[in-house]
Amino acid sequence: MLDFTKMKKKFMTVKLDEDTILYVGTPRKRDLDNMLASKSVLSSEDMSQEDINLAYDMVADLLSNNKNKKKITGEYISDIFGLEDIVIFLEEYMKFVQSAIQTKN
Fold first, then answer.
1. In 10 A of CB 4, how many CB atoms?
2. pTM above 0.70, yes or no
């Protein structure tokens, strides 16, 4: 029997500040949809304020999918991450996702 409740899940450890360490899971479908939509936005030279807000909200949603069950908001992320940090997080997160996909449970 395939029992998803007993499968070992992969998590990426992310330290946001001295008091916040998250264990972030792989993306859900809506997260993947948002990531694909924001990929073109982040590489665009013509970003609007709405595009920037969407990028921060998307990262907050990804980080909210954590083992700690801690809700992360775009506002919180905008207080601690610059745009360069957003890009770095997404690059590292995609490496984690690729690794999780290629590794057997």
1. 6
2. yes
